[in-house]
From TrEMBL, chains A, B, C, D:
Keywords: Hydrolase, Protease. It comes from Dyadobacter koreensis. The keyword Protease applies. This is Transglutaminase-like enzyme, putative cysteine protease. InterPro entries: Bac_transglu_N, Papain-like_cys_pep_sf, Transglutaminase-like. It comes from the Bacteria. One of its GO terms (molecular function) is peptidase activity. One of its GO terms (biological process) is proteolysis. Residues 162-222 form the Transglutaminase-like domain.
Length: 270, 270, 270, 270
């Protein structure tokens, strides 16, 4: 399926402000990036690097005044990877590949080492078969028990906060899901990007878990995990994959996102 | 100076337990690792990998019963790097090398994005010259205001906890120092290893900050930062550089550490 | 300066052929990639990875028949970096950064370990000041003594061949220059990309050397090294940065390249 | 099996000479490094880094006079990995993992892109089943047709030279084997280390190929591939894994190697 994502971000800048952006798509297996653009208005030079997780990062200085950052991407993507039957099982920690080990450790917003989160994980999923069944129970529990609402959480809200307050947005749903999976020694990471099925057009966050020897996509915001996605970045939590990290005095004025599927029918992919 | 470190860790294991160890020395500039050993009793095979920060990690399964892990290292090391005069200054975020950027972001135990820690950083160091002077103010403030005491903090204690409770061990002193530096946009990381000047023989933790275009060592536990050190690992905080991360049912019974200088006089190093 | 590059490559494919492409621009400091596209006609899915040198690689299968690969890039670029005064000097091998060490070793097409090439290097540049002066002597010597001609060298031609036959294209000029620099223990690498100053529109190859603590651009094809460039890839030699590496039965039918400067005047850059 | 390797290298140094050594063991899955040492006499400081292939590299300056470098390692190792039945098959280039792709490209001493080597590969193995059978045919052909003799090849000898001269040492056997495998699009790399079965005690070189989804060990010097091995380094060819690369005026005076198995019976390994 051909899919297009576009985001327009406007800042009011009161003093030149250094930023790191993660707004360009990941270059990886499973999504063919056919076209993409990254424009800053007014025009300023930017440099790029690839971070430890393979994400593309853009560094630049926001100049004074109103600044607009527009990113566009057009990609050939697959639908969300199907869960095979029988469902993927739990991988023993000793059998995890080295490069997956980072994703069972606690991180800034996913304090999976806390007893309170560990207890919650066992309460929700302790009686289910380790692996897919546990993850899906966690996902469903969050979908049913956490209220989706803008404006009650912020950039410092953690999984523990969300477990207690039971309210938040996709970022918070995802942090809680990741923490509960890690508490069960299931590697879990945060992915941000475009999803075509989203009601309100926005950049979205979901989680991936390593079960049965592969990474699978789960989305606690959706009734069932589905849709076409373009991945922008993934990492341990929002500290790793922040859309924009700023160092200075600038205010986000607006974020406008568009997502479109460009074909009616999926084409064959190998 | 030739320096020797040795640690003996004993576990009581009640069920086979997967672990990741970081107990072997870093291989890097500034410390010449002449000899080292890593023994597990009873003997079990282990595999090794190098993590994202360049640390050596050992993976294996602790078998049932009492298990002893002994590591030894003998290295040629320099004394703690001197602060040059004039002192190293603040590097603008826009001028930081890409590979340093990870160390100004918040992490599991260093919540530098919290207003409370940011306020404390500005209160302590806001009136000092950005760079070395600010870092040294933070280091001294922690040394003078945080009480060093075993047994009051644990593996989930964060910099925010320490800022409030004003008590802890080297790990806690270090997390707080790192958080306050990052709140001032100064890159800071945690280093663990052997220090010859330590009163009670133990593995030690300190912090490094990136000022004036280089990493410098600071130690909030010491009256002044000094001594010979062998670095084992460095990372964003204790989640990255845990001596042992375990997945299962094992109890640390004892940790015994020895550190010795093997020569009376430093030899010339280039 | 805003600069645009575009390449259209047509293949006749007689059996499905696996390829690795390096046709998309590097994401790095010094060039801001504003827009770019990568299209295969007929459309096939492709995956991407970043290689050991930080280059973007595209992997896919060329289907039977005529296949056209079109890449486009629009970037904000600086002119070729000026040589400062005093000129950058030779860096002692012991003082080279670790990540530069790969570029003083011999490689597939740059056999800097051969006595014949070493002798040539000393004959050309042995009496000049180590560093910039030696490199510029080598560059000028190649420009003056190697005849630029299409069709006499091929993809297996080495620096030794070119030193003997004294004829070739940009790839051959560059391989010889790299080999002679490395024979003098000066790190040198191959860069491919777009150059606005080229007479015949083509993808171009030049070399970079590490002197005075930085990488500088040199071009043995030009009278003097100058112009605006968009870098696609760099590595040890053409084995690392081949535009297309194919595994099977396909014939390159045509390569069409366009390079345009989009503004008349350079704008200020930081 | 516990295994011990030791090498003592003596140099006569006429002017301070920068070197890069690869003499310490790889830290990886399948070999547990229990003890190891690296001593330079007279003592000089050295720094270490990990190269692009994960090998440990030591950098230092050989001082004037006679210098002795002694390395020792004691490891728990498995016997050479058995070939399973049915034998591992050829992996289509399109299905190779990204990180394996480097090993089908030509390199300094393995010019697999040359028609002459490609012809030889097809002549030897063209009629055999792709994968294990082809590799084993190549290995046996080299064992039977290349004469093992010291002193006729040197550090610049390539696979093409060996294919023509049919004489050489383990380094040359290995380069030829790698080149012929790559000519058949089978990823192949060079490994150096200790082998217990070697007649004359020396550091040894062999090759590994990626078939059936894994790396397997092959040794063209042996009648059949067998024995216990400690891996020091692996890479594309001897340019990547040179025991010592020197930049200056020093003469290798002697190399003395000892390899011992420390137990009579293999112990169980998982």
């Amino acid at each position: 399926m051909k899919m297009k994502g576009r985001s327009v971000i406007t800042y009011n800048v009161y003093a030149p402000t250094n930023v790191i952006c993660m707004l360009r798509p990941r270059r990886q297996n499973g999504q063919s990036i056919i076209e993409e653009g990254f424009n800053i208005e007014p025009s300023v030079p930017f440099s790029e690097y690839t971070d430890l997780y393979g994400n593309a990062c853009q560094r630049f200085v926001l100049p004074n005044g109103q600044v607009t950052i527009t990113t566009e991407v057009q990609a050939q993507v697959n639908p969300t990877k199907q869960i095979p039957s029988p469902v993927p099982g739990y991988i023993l920690v000793g059998d995890l590949p080295d490069e997956v080990m980072y994703y069972i450790l606690p991180s800034r917003y996913c304090q999976s080492d806390l007893q309170e989160l560990s207890n919650l994980a066992f309460q929700i999923a302790g009686n289910f078969v380790p692996g897919y069944d546990q993850v899906e129970e966690i996902r469903k529990w969050i979908h049913q028990n956490i209220k989706y609402q803008y404006g009650v959480s912020d950039s410092t809200t953690t999984a523990l906060d969300t477990a207690r307050n039971r309210i938040g947005v996709c970022r918070d749903f995802t942090h809680l899901a990741i923490s509960l999976c890690r508490a069960l020694s299931i590697p879990a990471r945060m992915t941000v990007g475009y999803l075509d099925k989203l009601q309100e057009m926005d950049l979205h966050a979901w989680f991936e878990v390593y079960i049965g020897g592969e990474w699978y996509t789960f989305d606690a915001v959706q009734e069932v995990t589905e849709g076409y996605r373009i991945e922008i970045a993934h990492g341990r939590d929002a500290a790793d994959v922040a859309m924009i990290t700023q160092f200075g005095n600038a205010t986000l004025q607006s974020l406008h996102v568009e997502v479109n599927l460009l074909e009616n029918e999926p084409v064959s992919q190998n």
